[in-house]
Amino acid sequence: MDDFEDDFIEDEQFSEGKYEDNEDGHSGLEDDDLLEFQPSSQKLKRTSSYVVLPQQKIIEESNKMIQEVMGVCNLKTSAAASSLLRAFKWNKENLLDSYLENSDKACERAGLSSLEFDQPKSDSDSKTFDCLICLEQLSADDTYALACKHRYCLQCWKEYLELKIKDGPSCVIAKCPSPKCRALVHEVAFKALVDERLLEKYRYYFTRSFVENNDYVKWCPSPGCSNAVRCDSINRKKPVTCGCGFTFCFQCADVDIGDHSPAPCDQVRKWKKKANEESENIKWLINNTKKCPKCRSPIEKNGGCMHMTCRNSSCCFEFCWLCRGPWSEHGQATGGFYQCNKYDPTKDKKVYGEKTETKTELETYTFYFHRYESHKNAMKVANDQRNMCNKKAEEMMDKFGVRSSDTKFMIEATEQLTANRRVLQYSYVMGYYIDKKKEAEKNLLEYLQEDLEKHTNDLSTSFEEGGKSVVNYPSFMKWREEISNKTRVNSKFLQNFLNGIVEGLV
């Protein structure tokens, strides 16, 4: 798939030529970010793929860029450089190219008529000046004008700029009060006309513009987090992990979605829209239309297990809730336990008879929506288990005398389960939108899903059921070894799954 053309590997952060790990172990470097290859006796030099920027780092980065522009363009004020950078969306390279090619045109784009910000003198020889806002007659010393020469009294200017600052971040693009004038009210003017408290607020909004008007930097969408993330590519396909631990897609930066690998953004947007339109109908169908494949008696699912048994005394047929296939075909020996991740329209026809085209499409969507919701709910269970790990670890330490380090495998296992479920959840979005003509890609996706689902459910079962049988120290250590091994295996299969998507499903 084109959307996942880069290698999907664990990112590492890069700082001043050294590797520095975040608290979550990620740092923002990728194999495709290699700057050069050196002999094996030397280390590879890499450039940063993405960097987490705390508030102070945002200020430092923006100030550094302003100083660089001042130096290259020979500007005498930081206000000139910062205004130009904001107009060019903080893209230093684009600004420098445009400025060196035609400085007047670049300044015009930024709304600047004079890079020195000298207050122009009044054209009138009289010692008084009429303010066109309050219509008061004042001395020239009690007025102010930008380079556009639209002159107003200091009080009117002050009230105008105070109102702009109170309006919020848009104050950084405030224009001259004169109608149709495009001259930008720069920092020098704010400094001359408003008090220190409001000036600091203006500077705060200007610093925020480094993120909000910059295509390469985005705020972390996690509630309460003040970090930003800067990427080398605005079309980054791989997720990023903030210093707060939240992982999300850099392109859509949606807190409700977070990381939606392996499905690309456009598919997720279409899926969310369709889910909003169809979810109630689908949920009703899922909850009310399952019938025993053998005797057609209505079946109500009231537990979490997918193994269903018809309560009709003359039937007692055992089947899988997901695919409605015989449970006898879902054993380990048959290799069919996880075969129901594949959609087979002929199976629905056998159960329900021939359908109209519209209803068949609804059933296709129901198939994928059901599995999407199942993994979404299972991910919530894994999150709950993760939150209970500390309490469970304390119980194990008190009961069996184990060390704190001996219980970390529980957190690792639940985090692995959460990651697996999230990827499986969005893999069904990808499966729904995959081109039906690309049979080889469809088959490979289903194969990878089956592989990952098998190991995910194996780890989940061992974690839940194995923990119940721990009665002494030897059984605890045995359980620990089993879960640790299966967690490593799951990590490998998750990587294989994502690599398979990256390589194009062919």
Brief digest:
This protein is 49% helix and 9% strand. With 506 residues, the protein is mainly alpha-helical.
Number of domains: 3
- If you average the pLDDT, what whole number results? 80
Low-confidence stretches: 1-47, 351-358
H/E series, N to C? EEEEEHHHHEEEEHHHEEEEHEEHHHHH
Structural class: mainly alpha
Summarize the main sheet.
3 strands, antiparallel
Helix content: 40-55%
Please write the CATH class name of the largest domain: Mainly Alpha
Categorize the overall geometry: elongated
- Assembly status: single chain
Radius of gyration: 31 Å
* CATH fold name of the largest domain: Four Helix Bundle (Hemerythrin (Met), subunit A)
Question: What's the number of helices?
Answer: 13
* Reported CATH architecture of the largest domain: Up-down Bundle
Would you kindly provide a written description of the structure presented here, covering whatever features stand out?
The chain is built from 13 helices and 15 strands. It has 506 residues and is mainly alpha-helical. Helix 2 (78-87) packs across helix 4, helix 11 (408-433) packs antiparallel against helix 12 (439-468) and helix 11 runs parallel beside helix 13 (473-502). The relative contact order is 0.07.
